[in-house]
Amino acid sequence: MLSERLQKRLTKERPMTTITLRIPVDVVESLKALAPHKGFSGYQTLLKSYLSEGLRRDEALYGADPTARLLEALRARGVAQEVLEAAVRDLAA
């Protein structure tokens, strides 16, 4: 199930704002060259896609519950699921 925040982000009717960014010319040229290869009609759409990808990644990393992030880090380092569950139970007690 999608969070309310993500559901809002996926709607087409969201309010938009215009911003100005100073980006080096060579970066814009690279974006223009890459856009068709990634299936985008133009470099601005590709740039928005890159922003969205980074934002989703960082929100997942920093927006999640710190306990959940710690459990994922411990799980990735091989800590047994039973040990993690016991630790969570101890926290709740």
Give a quick set of tags describing it.
93 residues; mainly alpha; 2 domains; single chain; CopG family transcriptional regulator
List the helices and strands and how they pair.
Blueprint: H1 4-10, H2 25-34, H3 43-62, H4 66-76, H5 81-92
Helix pairs in contact: 2-3
Task: Briefly summarize what is shown.
The chain is mostly helical.
Structural overview:
The structure is a single chain. The model has no long low-confidence stretch (mean pLDDT 87). The protein is mainly α and 93 residues long. The longest helix is centred in the middle third of the chain and has 20 residues. It folds into two domains: 39 residues; 29 residues, no CATH class. Helix 2 packs across helix 3. The protein is 65% helix and 0% strand. It comes from Candidatus Thiodictyon syntrophicum.
Low-confidence sequence ranges: none
Content-based structural category: mainly alpha
The share of residues in extended strands comes to under 5%
Fraction of helical residues: 55-70%
Radius of gyration, in angstroms, nearest whole number: 20 Å
- Sheet bearing the most strands, described? none
Number of helices: 5
What is the number of E strands? 0
**Mean pLDDT metric:** 87
Protein name: CopG family transcriptional regulator
Organism: Candidatus Thiodictyon syntrophicum
